[in-house]
Design goal:
mainly alpha, 2 strands
């Protein structure tokens, strides 16, 4: 399935229909489905092993079911993310000044697909797993930074949307002229702001180790998570930049089609 832009051309009175594929939906759909399956797997895994083997970090069962997962997911997620960013860089378009309007428009649609993947991956920490982490620590005494909830929300969900965020930035800077000429402040907020949640985790764990504070979301130790999460709202500014340029490209392509029809 693909989104198709159609234009009508006339040649000597004969009506001709021209269809050009602008955006393919199936890669984004597959990506969203894969993310949904991964997040569902983590939820089912937590349901099966969190209270059974995740209450005491000193037991062999905890090492088997939770530390093993932690040791696998960190290098796997960041490794695949580095490969993705490297691929986007080494296959970059080195002649962005001369790309056709239709090609540029197609790339903007792909960029929107990246935004969708980034947003969906961000939901892992901004909604369900973020809430479940607070619930876990209000129910179970914290005995280590590697709890069953942290291993999912901080060491799986955060790296995932970090990778999609940097992938989005790299795609925009290497494929789209507007983003290659300078730095989009909203896009930088979107990518680097939420990524700092992982850094803020160190401060959070340090604070909880020295002060046995109650696990409530309004505690000062958690303020950094909120502020850094808000930076993801910069996506609205990026979309405004994208839509404005796409509107110009639609007009350019339509005008070119009309000239071609007259000729």
């Amino acid at each position: 399935m693909s989104a198709v832009m159609k234009s009508s051309k006339r040649d000597g009175g004969a009506g001709l229909q021209s269809s050009r594929s602008i955006f393919k939906v199936w890669p984004v759909a597959l990506g969203l489905a894969g993310l949904a399956m991964l997040l569902a797997f983590y939820r089912l895994y937590q349901g099966a092993y969190a209270f059974k083997y995740g209450l005491d970090s000193t037991t062999p069962e905890f090492a088997k079911y939770w530390v093993t997962m932690f040791k696998i997911e960190i290098p796997l997620i960041f490794g695949l993310g580095l490969l993705m960013v490297a691929y986007l860089w080494f296959t970059r378009d080195k002649n962005l000044a001369k790309i056709e309007p239709e090609t540029e428009l197609r790339r903007y649609f792909v960029l929107i697909g990246w935004f969708m993947l980034y947003t969906f991956s961000f939901l892992g920490i901004a909604s369900f797993y973020g809430e479940s982490d607070g619930t876990w620590h209000q129910t179970v005494i914290r005995d280590t930074a590697l709890t069953p909830s942290h291993i999912v929300v901080f060491y799986a969900c955060v790296p995932l949307y970090m990778c999609f965020g940097f992938g989005t930035l790299m795609y925009a800077m290497t494929r789209i002229p507007k983003f290659s000429k300078g730095y989009s402040v909203p896009l930088l907020f979107v990518v680097f702001g939420p990524a700092l949640i992982l850094a803020n985790l160190g401060y959070n764990e340090w604070g909880h180790a020295f002060w046995f504070t109650e696990e409530i979301f309004s505690h000062p130790l958690h303020w950094g998570f909120t502020v850094l999460g808000w930076t993801g709202l910069g996506l609205g500014g990026v979309l405004l930049q994208v839509v404005m340029r796409m509107s110009e490209l639609f007009k350019e392509i339509t005008a070119a089609d009309k000239l071609g029809a007259i000729a």
